[in-house]
Specification:
binds ligand MTE, about 425 residues, molybdopterin cofactor binding, 3 domains, globular, mainly beta, molybdenum, 3 helices, binds molybdenum atom, disordered N terminus, Sulfite Oxidase, Chain A, domain 2, Immunoglobulin-like, OxRdtase_Mopterin-bd_sf, metal-binding
Length: about 425
């Protein structure tokens, strides 16, 4: 096997090169190349449960591990650790506990780069002792969440709607640590992260991912170097023992298994910062268009979006009984200002109740009591609008080659009997 494609991505299988293999739980899927588009391998359901994760997560891929959370399991206001989605680009670092209960004091974080006078190393124990600790509830959403719906399809994990979660994160401000490392504000342009996960090829000289954010984002109050999720050590698959957390930006910026932060004097040029990764066409293009690298722009803030988490799609309800609908809404910068639902395919909309966020970058709970005029099949559609008046589109927004930023309205089916 000279080249392994472990991506569990049935919709692109027919286009796979003959020499490429799909494996599941370490076994080759022998006839993978013949699997019709749209058929998901049944065996994925038998894959071993992921350490620290709820068995209801949908595993898209087992090497690297990628798993999303079905919308109806995301109903908690604060996402439990076991329900936080997992998106790995490489292999989880070896030698760490599968279900951690404490922190390794001697884990180190190096601050490097052109914009610090010299590299500085902090142990995790020092970080915890030396800097003020902050806790924020922050939504993380993969830039490719919703990719499954793009047509023509985009390569990569075919995420449904569940590559999102909003737990409470505890750590220190990245700003405080950069200041302690005496970073030079006149030189600093970007930060780039490095983690301890390893490249799928096993090549120690390659890193699976090394992304970052503009220095202005790095310096925000809510930009954290975090060691706890909901007051417990981070789950192994979510970056134990240390990770970055940036609200409002694609979650790919929030480096896991964090071991180094480079303060760069230029836009960070690490793995998956360049080319077409986490970029969209600078100008809108027609679906299917091939776009040159130089016409692709880095994704910064994520768009306004919402998810109906209760009831689950397919609910059967009794006529005359109002249905409680609930979910969350979030956006990359400002707050979500209003939330509406429709039961007539978007012809008319009614207001939902919408709570304020726990803090900036936390999702906001919405609820509505919905009544249906008669028995039958309905869909409930949900639409969030941000404080700048930008609303979710009802159909797929701007097609882009890698299938990012799908913030189309979420829908569920309801049978009234
Ligand atoms: N070191 C490291 N950090 C990483 C990744 C990774 O593969 N390795 N994946 C990124 C991507 S693409 C996403 S969407 C988020 C996912 O965070 P989660 O797995 O905790 O949900 O982590 C980001 N940070
Ligand atoms: Mo991602």
């Amino acid at each position: 096997m000279d080249y392994l494609v472990h991506a569990q991505n049935p919709s692109i299988l027919p286009s796979l090169n003959r020499r490429k293999f799909l494996t599941l739980a370490g076994l080759p899927v022998v006839y993978a190349a013949r699997l019709p588009a749209g058929i998901t391998l049944l065996g994925l359901d038998d894959a071993d449960p992921l350490p620290g994760k709820h068995p209801g997560l949908t595993v898209l891929n087992d090497r690297p591990v990628n798993a999303e959370t079905p919308p109806h399991l995301l109903n908690d206001s604060v996402t439990p650790a076991a329900l936080m989605f997992v998106r790995n680009n490489g292999l989880v670092p070896r030698g760490l506990p599968e279900t951690p209960t404490t922190w390794p004091d001697d884990w180190t974080l190096r601050i490097t780069g052109e914009a610090v006078p010299e590299p500085v190393t902090f142990t995790l124990a020092e970080l915890r002792r030396r800097f003020p600790t902050h806790t924020y509830q922050i939504t993380l959403e993969c830039g490719g969440n919703g990719r499954k719906e793009f047509s023509p399809p985009a390569k990569g994990n075919q995420w449904g709607n569940g590559a999102v979660g909003c737990p409470r994160w505890t750590g220190v401000r990245l700003r405080d640590v950069l200041e302690a490392a005496k970073y030079d504000p006149r030189k600093a342009v970007y930060i780039g992260y490095y983690g301890k996960d390893t490249h799928l090829s096993g090549d120690p000289d390659k890193v699976p991912i090394s992304r970052g954010v503009p220095i202005s984002k790095a310096l925000e109050d809510e930009s954290l170097i975090a060691w706890a999720l909901n007051d417990e050590p981070l789950p192994l698959l979510n970056g134990y023992p240390l990770r970055l957390v940036f609200g409002g930006y694609p979650a790919s910026c929030s480096g896991k298994w964090l071991s180094e932060i480079a303060v760069r004097d230029r836009v960070h040029d690490g793995e998956k910062m360049e080319g077409q990764s986490y970029r969209v066409p600078c100008e809108p293009v027609a679906p299917g268009t091939a776009v040159d690298d130089e016409d692709m722009c880095i994704i910064l803030e994520m768009p306004v979006k919402s998810l109906i988490t209760s009831p689950r799609t397919g609910a059967v309800i009794e006529q005359g009984v109002p249905l409680s609908v609930g979910g969350h809404a979030w956006c990359g910068s400002s707050e979500v200002a209003r939330m509406d639902y429709s039961i007539d395919f978007g012809s008319t909309w009614s207001r939902c109740r919408l709570q304020s966020p726990a803090n900036r970058f936390a999702w906001q709970r919405f609820t509505a009591e919905v009544t249906f005029p008669q028995a039958g099949y309905y869909e409930v559609w949900a639409r969030a609008t941000d404080a700048d008046g930008r609303a979710q589109p009802m159909v797929l927004p701007g097609w882009n080659p890698r299938g990012y930023l799908n913030n189309a309205c979420h829908r569920i089916a309801v049978k009234v009997v």
